[in-house]
Amino acid sequence: xxxxxxxxxxxxxxxxxxxxxxxxxxxxxxxxxxxxxxxxxxxxxxxxxxxxxxxxxxxxxxxxxxxxxxxxxxxxxxxxxxxxxxxxxxxxxxxxxxxxxxxxxxxxxxxxxxxxxxxxxxxxxxx
Length: 127
Prior knowledge:
The chain has helices at residues 2-39, 79-125, and strands at residues 45-51, 54-59, 65-70, 73-77.
């Protein structure tokens, strides 16, 4: 019974991590699409988000993007270069997601096996 509880806890934790990964994937896919849309944009102005639902009208002087690479450091990249980085992140997250799903399936299978053993044990003790 202890083993079943332990497995259940592991499975729940993994499901939470999986949910986070799926949310990240959703965000990255939206950004990827936005970059594709931006590449086809021929306007000289746009509305940019400052965060938390606050936006500002901006003039587009260049199609170059400033991409944060950590510790507040910004690097100039083209939209194509940025999309390639995002595609790589999406690929890595999809691989991690697949590993998590496989591990979750193993946990569930092991849990089913333990539950079946417990039921058989109870059945044998009652006879």
